[in-house]
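Hi L.,

You mentioned the student needs an example of a multi-chain input paired with its predicted structure. This one should do, with 1288 residues in total across all chains.
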Amino acid sequence: MRVGIDVGGTFTDLICVTPDGEVILDKTPTTPADQSVGVMTGLQLLADRVGLSLADFCRQLEALVHGTTTADNTMIEMNGAPTGLLVTEGHRDEIEMRRVHKEEIWDPSYPPPEPIARRRCRIPIPERLDFEGNVVKVLDEDAVRRGVQRLQKLGCRSIAVVFLHSFTNPVHELRARELVLEEFPDVEHISLSHEVMPKAPEYERTSTTLVNAYVAPRIAAYTGQLTDKLRSAGYGGQMLIMQSTGGVMPPDYVARRAVSLLASGPTGGVMGAAVAAARSGAPDFVAVDMGGTSYDVCLVRGGRPEIKTDWNWRYRYYIGQPMVDVESVGAGGGSIAHVRQGALLVGPESAGSQPGPVCYGRGGTRATVTDADVVLGYLPVDNFAGGRMTLDVDAARAAIQRDVAEPLGLDVIEAAWGVERIVNANMANAVRKVVAQYGADARELAMIAYGGNGAVHAWAQARELGVRRILVPKAAPAFSALGLLVADYLIDLTRAYVVPLSRVDVSRVVHLFAEMLDEADKELAPATLDPADVSRELYALMCYPGQNFDMSVPVPEGTELSDPNLLDLAGRFHDLHESDRGFAFRGQQPLLRGVRLIAKGTTPKPPTLAHVGDVTDASAAVKGRRPVFFGEGFVDTPVFDGARLGPGATIAGPALVEEPFTVVVLPPGDRAILDRHGNYDIIVGS
Amino acid sequence: MDVDLVQLAGHRARLADTITVDPVTAEVVRGAMETVCWEMATYVSRTATTPILNQSNERNGSILDARGRLAALSVGIPQFMLSSALPIRFALEYLGVEEFRPGDVFVANDPYHGGGHLPDYNVFAPVFDDGGELILIPSIQCHHGDTGGGVPGGYNVTANDIWGEGVRWPAIKVIDRGVERRDVLYALATNNRLPGYIGDLRAQIGAAQLAVVRLGEIIERYGSGTVRESVDSMIEYAAKRFREEVAAWPDGVYEADAYVDHDPLGNKDIHIHVKITVDGDALKIDYTGSDTRDEIQAWSTYGNTRGYTIAQIASMMDPAIPKNEGFFEAIDLIAPAGCVLNPRAGKPVSAGTHHPGADIGEVIALAFQHVLPDKAVPQTYKTGIPTTITGIDPRTGVQFIDPSTEVYAGWCNAARGMDAWGAQAASFGNLWKATAEINESIFPHIQWERDYRTDSGGPGQWRGLCGSHWVKQVRVPFKVYTYVVGMKYPMPGIAGGMPGAPNRLVLHYESDHELVVAHTADWVPHAADEKLNYDYGGGGGWGDPLDRDTQAVLDDVLDEYVSVEGAERDYGVVLRGSLEELTLEVDEEATARLRSARRAAG
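Structure written out for the whole complex:
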């Protein structure tokens, strides 16, 4: 038995794959104060579904993979550990200056981010290395001791150390850790910048290290608590936790690299999408997840999600860690529509799930996207959310009339359609931006739509973007939990070594490679993986002198690297640069910035991803009809019961396919086939 | 050849006779066009080869309509985005619309044909509908590290005239109907010192061509008529929103003066004067009375003046109003020919683009400080010009040019209700300045310090941002070229706030022959391992410092933005206890006494 449990903002998604390959999906409300309560409730729920006691269920578990938002919540609420910083004298204020970056250029009253370590908690330490790691000013050990004493007096419980060029020579940071421990033996956590982010430059490393030190004690406490609960419930195996790289690792590993959990929430869905799309033969696609408050977009090419190694901002801090590149915009079912000075705006303000859209009847009073959806006929009024809810369409209509139609002088249907057009355009622009960053073309990509509202809106965006194929997986509503189960172990390590390629000491590179391979082996050892399931990819981080961002160039030679190989390496860098950026300076000497290892341990994948029905003649699964608005008048539209459809069932639009937690909207011209993997494969009409 | 820039900047008719497009469609088209601007800028960042573009984000994407009206813009720096339209209008009206053909791409950089200063290269290309009618012109403007002329780096501040500052390209076709003009690209390359220049220009050309394709798709999708009406509709919407904001401002005539310490030749007190008239929803900004001395060397062209004016006004309005031609149309702007804010053609502009250009933000904020105190936050700076350091890099044997574009804090004023924060004013938030760790691997130097200077932020009810104490040591023999302002006239306080600390640049720092720069450093030689110290000025405070919350002052002292002495001297707050021992507290009684005595003394 393998279980994935993903904690979302509203619901904790559950997935269980039984030994005979059956996939069970469910949801339980998230318990925000202590997420482990909801996790244990979810386990009980799954145990009930397979007819076992919790203890028996836990004993039969082969794997438990967990996605948690604890790191994100700590940053949203800014309730991490009181944190102090020891920093190279003269560079105390990098974290406030932010390389001059401000998020709002037209608003002089835009506030600063809330500080993790106020200036008084940032202690300047006399010490300095040059860029080659030579000591140009020795570490003032007394200053470190006095600084730690002062931070204790200021109430700090966690300490970050950021010295310039420490990634080239960590001697001063390592000594500082010893001194911190001598002066403050019960410090909760110490983050050394060269361990958290072993590369330049200083603002990015300071921000990343501070966030790590701030969040780590909370992660350690949470995973410790959950591990204890699982042990007492009878689970003897190792829990794995999803990181923002899209890979999983055990709790003690992630507790040291707490920052790698930030923004890991949407990655589960992307990894699930990658597996679902691969099975349906769509290696190049854009994954779009439309929930209640946000719309998350990720580009996947060759079955691999794009990993972004720079310009990752979360909660107004720079996070210098590779992350699956998920861009998020404030567009979801709960996004509020309003007219401001004659312009119709939708979002980013959201009614979320509480109070939610007006049609939920839970006290929401402002018109939302979901209200427009129900007015236009997309949503099942009597059978919403798996039959657990009835929607109040009159209240939705009244809200759109009042908030949108009257201020704009439109009728209520035109107004609802206007809300759709704006939110769809906002989402299409978000997709264009993601695709543009990688120089890809949306018209050559499929779109995988999931989340509660993804399949309701995908058709309109596909037209806007020129996308010709949409996949809607049946497992879509619990996709992030599915993603946990298909994710692999992943370790992503770097070591800095800054030198022009012509002056590289190959033995040093080989030594760094060996060091990283050794570290990865140690970290992966507890997983007892079959050696055949472990892959290791080595890279050189290279750039042209003067460039800020480096590229990862494969080094298949590994520890066999020799001097003649360096010439090849330069050639490979020029080629990669040309294919990715459109040009190369073949006459120029590239700069080596460091080395990188990505080690992967493959986990078993479930044979099927979703339960599929057995009705192949779709007309037999029609359960009703209702009028639906696709842009030009209401069209009488058949409604299909998705649970009954079997592989090969074909449906031509106009049509609605109702699944327990979502609706697939097919306008006239679109045509869907349910494939044997449980994906609705939609050909977009013109 | 003189072009009348005032006439060039004037009102232009809209594209459609009547607007029937619905507001939702107009909004959808606007969103799509702003995304294209963003795509252009991203394309440049991805493909540019030199740090100023791929590291520092000095690139501005915008879209003009067929009449040269600003239709949309997105990322960039407000002052520069708003000054990118006129070179295109020049090309349209002086070369003629018949010179615009499908597949063409133009390059322009000349201040007297609509540009700001010579290092800013504007690349633009026309977009036609399927009837062959010109509809839109995307433009991508980037600051380059050199532009030919008398000195490397693009800032020849002592040149006699514009020709001495660099090579001028009013508007020249680099791609003619899809075919690259090799002669022209060769000529461009020949007139620039930097080997990366053509690579960066090609990145801009590629970005403009990408935008042509994208905008073509938008025209095809929505129809040429709808796109034209959408552009008209968004410009009129912005103008309407602008006038509504102005209508909420109190009617009256507001005047103020601002000064630049001196020009690069040492001529003192370059004066700018503004008279702002708010009358209902009409806004008139008149610079009559500004300096007209012919011998000075501080000239901001009309296009530059207009960009800085609008950038400051835009910062005082609802940030959600789309930035487009509507802003220009809703302002009556007067800058008499021959004054520093509208020089006669040929005057040098290297120094003046920044000063008095940037000081426009200051003078407008000062004029409005008592009537719109909530909004009067100068979006400006006192850079002078970037401090250029050159020498021979021992690692390569080649000359290096370090423009000192690394991070430092300076000149950021407080707003009502908020202490200033970060490093610079919000307008520059899209910059991404260089770092010690990367620059030390490129240049033979060590950046020892750049922390906030205690007590350098202008005191006020809300505190101005501290400036930086910047120290750099260069490990080889080097020369320094720069122009320093903001010593006599630092950033002013607003609504009773105090000014920030002044700038100060010390050459041969910590030697027995320290030299404080009076106005320019003209390639001053230094020995290996000598240091420079630039104390960048602070931002001005907002409101009376005696009204600052005493606990906020205590916090500032604990954080060393303000010293114990500064608390008493600048804020009238008496502290007891010890900063060292963390036992500081406010002596409320002594503070109340001191503050009331200060108030009584006026």
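You could point out the following to them. Chain A touches chain B through 69 residues (CB under 8 Å). The mean pLDDT of chain A is 92.

Best wishes,
N.
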